[in-house]
Amino acid sequence: MKPIEIWTSELKNGIYGGLKPIIDPFDNTKFYISDGWGSSYPSMKLRQLSLENGKELNTISIKNSVRCLYFNPDKSNIFAVSDNKIFQINRKDFSVIKKFEKGIQKYSDYISSNDKDTLLLMNYNANFLFVYHYENEKGFKKKLLSCSGIFRESESTYFILCPKMGSVQQYSLTNNKLKEVLRTEVFCNAYKSKSDKFYLQLGKVIEATSDTHERIEPINQIKICSISNPQNNREIKFEFQFDQFVVSKNEEVLYLIHNNDIWFYSLIKNEIVNKISLNKKARIVQIFEEQEMFISYEYDKPNILSCWKF
Fold first, then answer.
1. d(CA 238, CA 222)
2. Less Cβ crowding at N or C end of the chain, within 10 Å?
3. SS3 for 41?
4. Which residues pair with 301 in a beta bridge?
5. Res. 210 pLDDT band, cuts 50 70 90
6. How far apart are CA 185 and CA 201, in angstroms?
7. Do β-strands 293-298 and 301-309 pair in parallel, antiparallel, or remain unpaired?
8. Looking at beta carbons, which pairs linking 160-166 to residues 24 or more positions away fall under 8 Å?
9. CB-based burial label for 293 (10 Å; 0-12, 13-18, 19+)
10. Residue-level pLDDT at 2
11. How confident is the model at residue 92 (pLDDT cuts 50, 70, 90)?
């Protein structure tokens, strides 16, 4: 499959190490990025770009990289989390409503909310879930081990995916209790679908050395499981390496990404049905599957984004 390049846009800073492109859930003509490693702190911003032409529409000075975003369903509020601050942003005019600095747990990679007064935050390698009541700017920690996603189940309950534990935990905000609802193998990347299936890229733990931290290395295997039917698990092993995956909204296709390649795996036909390969320098950073588009940059030019149609 040969993709069609729609636009290329040169940014003031590179996005490597910053927020991966995230589409606006209420307006799919816009997406968000943040400046990444190598940028000078005073110049670092959260940026809103047009998906149609790549032009920069709005920016907010963060003076750090944004690690994760949460869009409130009221369509008015966005919470942007940097290393040590949380910004409440007016989505409509892209202005900062409030900046939270007091009592923030640092380095959160994942975020969810009850959409009233509380944020749930956690770092990938953290030993604690951080529950932050932003109205009174106070928070507390709940002991846990590692995180690759926080998914809201109801107003007061959340699924927390814990890769090192090989576990899906259910957290109750009402009584501050955890309960394991699914046990699986160690995994690294994870996604929860609207049909309540968990898609897990399995991994293996690499022990720490004198020069490195302990880490989970992805393996070429996806496990699909659910709480309601734990006996009906499905495992798919691939003959190639990948380190990201995206599940289509209708759950019929897995998009498997490694550097400059995307494989299209049909969950209906149980086979690879297409493949896209860009030039060897390209790095594919995000797929917007509903729009049939993806974003890339070249590894030595992370400030130049390209958008492609597949």
1. 8
2. N
3. helix
4. 298
5. confident
6. 10
7. antiparallel
8. 160/122, 160/129, 161/187, 161/190, 161/192, 161/198, 161/200, 163/124, 163/187, 163/188, 163/190, 163/203, 163/216, 164/205, 164/216
9. buried
10. 94
11. very high
